[in-house]
G_PROTEIN_RECEP_F1_2 domain-containing protein
Amino acid sequence: MPDGVRELSHHWPDNCSDKFENRLRYGVGATRAIGSPAIVILGLLGNALTIAIFSLEARLSRWNRFGIWCVALAISDSSVLIFSSFIDDFLGRGLAHIYGSEVLKLDASHPMSCRLLEYMQHSTLFASSYLLVIFSADRLLTVSQPMRMMTHRYVTQSVAAAVSVAVLGLILMSPVIAVYGLETAGYEDVMSFSCRIALNCTDGGQSSSAAKYILYFKAFGIFVAPCLLQAALSAAIVAKLIQVRRLRRDLLPGSHDKDLAMSRYYANLAVSITFCLLSSPLCVVIVMRTGCGLCEPRPSCRCHVLEQAAKLLDSVKDISYAINFWVYLIFVRSFRRRVQLALAFAFVRLRLVALCPNWSASRAAAEMVDRLEMKRNPGVFQSQAAVAAAAQATSGRTGSLGQLHMQMLKEIKEED
């Protein structure tokens, strides 16, 4: 047995029919074997595109608060997908469900890997939850005070707030390194290593303060509290948007709320509501599990069922970390158009060298486009003739490159 590994015995109640619990256990394994990798792939792809699109927008124009919060969420959500959905769920439980035995359980390979992976998982979960809360608070302030909270104001403060949330998560979750470790768990005479929290129970049935802090802070500080805050902020945003729409209709009869700002509010609401819907069942199960005890767990079917239900709902909740890009794509028309332009621009540029018989001319055209991408170049919109001339030198096959690029620049400038 490796150093630092503790023995853990599980006592199943003799009068408990664990048929339903076994079904839940199978559901957890199947979800993490099939659903988790799909969530990770779609989530990482969408988050990478989100970062690329908003970074390109900032390169061509300048950063705004909406873009900063979207990029910050994409980074934190990607971290959650890697440490929680992929390493913990898929590698830790999904592969075991597929092959019938543990294959690559990284958090159970060494006590230090257990502590570090759990630490990163807790920290990234904290960051993602509260970044979304602050994002919604920013949207509420923007709709309440539109003149003061214009899109390009308080950009530096937003970056500082996002970084502060990440650092705060690393600080608050630091006790994880001290309380987590490897234990041996036995189910039906099959022994396996598991990364668990060390309760260090006393004779009086009390666990250590650090263990209580991590358990209750993860349950209520990372899951329950952000869910309640998101619900309250979303309700406030909806009420304020209804008020704004009524006022707009009174002042401007026949107007339509299809502008860029309103679509951003709708996107934030969609992300927030999805987060609340996926988190609420897990929060209910977490609250119900508080009665099962820590050091002297109640040997009841209810507690074992709740344990597996919490694991299943936790895996399903990972969907909320993978949908942001797809929500922006549906609700924000400018983002959707920018994705189309960026993909078309990338495709044309990749084909530039392959299709153009004159390598030097195509390279000159590409370099000309690169110059246009300089941030806040005063002559960027006056250089269209130069781009067209360079593109024309490439046998007429790359003329759409300059047009796509200029169209993207024009749309961003109009939004600013």
Observations:
- The beta strands are 5-8, 180-187, 190-197.
- The first strand starts at residue 5 and ends at 8.
